[in-house]
Design brief:
The chain is mostly beta strands. 0% of the residues lie in helices and 52% in strands. It contains no helices and eleven strands.
């Protein structure tokens, strides 16, 4: 049972990235799946979540810019990030309800 994130990198302000969270050992459709992030020197914060019933929520700081989605056939959760800002720089983690974390992927927004 594991989560593997990918898709992070360096992007200029205003740019876009799509993060992927590939799950194995369970079906993402059966759980609430979330993205968290942790900037250097700060605590981990919830960015977006999608429930098993497809209810979606976002942190106020990313509403209108980020979109979480799920592909049940690929057993993968995505985070589309648009209009990125320097303050979005962080390590992004995928999380499954009941305590399963991915290893994280670094997102750096800088000119």
């Amino acid at each position: 049972v594991q989560l593997v994130e990918s898709g992070g990198g360096l992007v200029q302000p205003g740019g876009s990235l799509r993060l992927s969270c590939a799950a194995s050992g369970f079906a993402v459709s059966n759980y609430r799946m979330s993205w968290y992030r942790q900037a250097a020197g700060k605590g981990r914060e919830l960015v977006a979540g999608i429930s098993a019933a497809d209810s979606i929520d976002y942190a106020d700081s990313v509403k209108g810019r980020f979109a979480i989605s799920r592909d049940n056939a690929k057993n993968t959760v995505y985070l589309q990030m648009n209009d990125l800002k320097p303050e979005d720089t962080a390590v992004y983690y995928c999380f499954r309800r009941y305590g399963l974390w991915g290893q994280g992927t670094q997102v750096t927004v800088s000119s």
